[in-house]
Each structure stands twice: as C-alpha cells, then as structure tokens.
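sry for the spam today, last one i promise. struct tokens for design, 16 residues
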C-alpha cells in the first residue's frame, strides 16, 4: 500500500 517515487523509502515498498 505504498506509492512509488524516486526516494529510497519509495523504492523499497513501491507496489506493495
């Protein structure tokens, strides 16, 4: 349930 972005924390949960 996390949005995708260019930040590190986004890359980790992108698509979950």
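last one done:
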């Amino acid at each position: 349930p996390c949005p995708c972005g260019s930040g590190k924390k986004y890359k980790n949960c992108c698509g979950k």
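The chain has a mean pLDDT of 85. ok im logging off now
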